[in-house]
Amino acid sequence: MSDVILLGTRKGTVILDRTPSGWRPRSMAHAGIPVCYAARDPRDGTLWASLDHGHWGPKLSRSHDGGKRWEDAPSIRYPQGARYIVKYLPTPDFDPGAPTGQPEYADATVFKIWNIAFGSAAQPGRLYAGTIPGGLFISDDGGESWELNRPLWNHESRGGDLFNGDATSENRWGGTPASIDYGVFEPGIHSIVIDPRDPDHIHVAASSAGVLETRDGGRSWAGRNQGMLMDYLPDPAAEWGHDPHFVAGCLDQPDHLWQQNHCGVFYSDDGARSWCKVSVPEDGVNFGFPIAADARDGRTAWVIPAHGDAQRMAIDGGLSVARTTDGGRSWQTFRTGLPQQNAYDIVLRHGLDAAGDSLCFGSTTGNVYLSDDRGESWRCMGNNFPPVYSVRFG
Amino acid sequence: MPTVKMTTHLFRFFPALENRELTVPAGSVAEVVRAVDVLAPGFSDYVLDERGALRRHVNLCVNDAMVVDRKTLSDRVGDDATVYVFQALSGG
To answer: Which domain holds residue B55?
Structure first.
C-alpha cells in the first residue's frame, strides 16, 4: 500500500500523504515551475522531479528527505558531437522549397526530460531518463552523472552514427507535438520499462517512432512494432513512425505489455515481439494517453477513454475509466464518482498510476481522482490543482 | 570590471548573488557568464545550454544592446559596461 502520491503539475510538485483522516496535499514544491514528471525511487526513497523551466532549461530536482528540501541534481547533457537529423513540421510558415533533400543536422541539446525510471534493486544507483529529442540517458551513480545511450541514439532507424559522420541510413523517427513548445519537431522517449527478471532487458517507447527493445543492457536495440497499426501514414504497418502514447508492463508477468497508442490500445503477451490491437471504439476504448498495467495479472489494464484525436477530451462530457481483465478482449467502463456532465478533461500519458487495488489519475483541467477498488468507483481529491502532467504513487 | 545585473528570478536559485554589487573580471559575454558561474556554481547551466549557447528564452544585454552572438557569446564587454541577464518575454 502506498502512502504517498506525487503530482507533477504545470505549477510545481504536489505531494499527497495518506493520513488517518484521508489523503492530504502538502503545499506546492517547486512553486511556479512546470514539473512534467515526479516519482519516488522505491529503492532508497529519493523523490525525483523533472523541471521544465520555461526559461532556464530542463533540470532534475531531487529530495533525500521525503520532499522537505529539494536540490538541483547534476544536469543531463548531450555529449559533444551528438547530432540529429532535423525534422520539419509543416506549420503555416514552413517553406516547402527550403529542404534540399539532404539531411540537415542539428547539435543535440536537452529540451525536456520526459520520464525518469529506476533500476532494479540489484543496480542501486541505476537511473534512466528519457528526453526530447529522443535520447535515453543512464546514470549508475544515483544521478551524479549521466551518459547518453549511444547505441539507441545511433540506431540505424535514426540515420546511424552521426558522431562519426553523416547519415548512413534514413531517419525514420517522426517528431512529437510535445516538442513544438521548444521550437522543434523531434521525437521523445516517454516510456521506459525494465524487466524485473533481467535488468539488461528494457523496452522504451518513443513518440513518434515506436517501441524498441534491448536484451543486452543497451548495447543493441531492435524495433518491436510488429502488429502495431497507424492511420496517419500510407502504410499502417510500417516498421517506424508509430506513436505510442505510453507503454506499461506487468511487474509479475513482464512479458505482458500494454500500450495506449495514438491509434488505439495495443497488448502484447510475448514481450512486444508482437502487438495486438484491442481497442473497442464502440465502448470508447481507443484513443487516450495513459495506460496502467496491473502488477500481478498481466491480462489486466486500465485506460481513460478520450474522444480522439481531433478533440482530445472526455467522451460526451463524462469522465470514465475502462478496465480489461482478459487481455483486452472485453472492457468494463466505470463512471461511479466521476463527473458525467460538462467534463472536458484529458489525462496525459503519465497522468494515471496503479498500486495494488488503488488507482489515481489527474487531468489537465486540474482534477484528481482516486479509486481503492481497482477502478470501479472514484472519489475526487481536488478540483483546483494546476494542469496535471504526471501522477505516481510513491 | 564590468557590472552584472540580473532578473531577481535567478536569486531564487542562486541566493548568493542577491543583495550585492556584482562585478567580474571579464572581457566578453562568455567570460562574464563563466565568472558568475564561479561565484554561483550552476548559474551558467541556467542561462546556457550544454553547447554554451544562450537558452532560447534568455536575453543578455551589454549596456543597451542585445548580444549579437547568442551561440558562443563572443560579444566584447568593456571594463565600465553593465551586462544584464533577463528572462525573455517569449517564454515561460
So the answer is: 3-87
